[in-house]
Structure formats: structure tokens, C-alpha cells
Amino acid sequence: MLKIKLSRTGKTHQPSYRIVVVEAKSKRDGKYVENLGHYNPVTKDFVVDTAKYGTWLTKGAQPTLTVANLLKKHTNEKSA
């Protein structure tokens, strides 16, 4: 089963995350199938390729709760 997860990058006390498609039981920062975007909680920068995201959802990949909430929050902010 594939999941759409956050993979941590960045230095100590300066986190940034990649939004990636990985096997559900793989390590958090292990190999990934595809990189869909990135998220920086310090600057509130959130970029995701929605076309690729939708493609992976149709293929059966399940987003984690955090990724789903981030996507919902940032799409609502852009429409408002």
C-alpha cells in the first residue's frame, strides 16, 4: 500500500519537509517513489503538484492525516 507522507529534511531546529509517495511500512526518510512538493513550517511555504497528487490518489495512494489537513488548509486559504 502506498502512502503520501512528509519526509523531514533541513537542519536541526530548522525543519522542512518533502511531500512524497512511499510504501506504507517504509522509514520516514527512506527511499520514495515520487516527490510531489515541499512544506516549510517556519515560513509557511507549501507547494504541491496537484496534478501528480490527484494521479496518485486515483492509483490508490492514501494521504496521511497531516498531509490531507495541510492540503485542505492551504487550498482554502488560496480560494478565500
Automatic annotation (TrEMBL):
Any one Gene Ontology molecular-function term assigned to this protein's record: structural constituent of ribosome
One GO-annotated biological process of the protein: translation
InterPro entries: Ribosomal_bS16, Ribosomal_bS16_CS, Ribosomal_bS16_dom_sf
Annotated Pfam families: Ribosomal_S16
Keyword entries, A-Z: Ribonucleoprotein, Ribosomal protein
Listed GO CC annotations: cytoplasm; small ribosomal subunit
Gene3D superfamilies reported for this sequence: 3.30.1320.10
Family: Belongs to the bacterial ribosomal protein bS16 family.
Descriptive protein name: Small ribosomal subunit protein bS16
Species: Candidatus Cerribacteria bacterium 'Amazon FNV 2010 28 9'
Lineage: Bacteria, Candidatus Cerribacteria
Encoding gene (name): rpsP
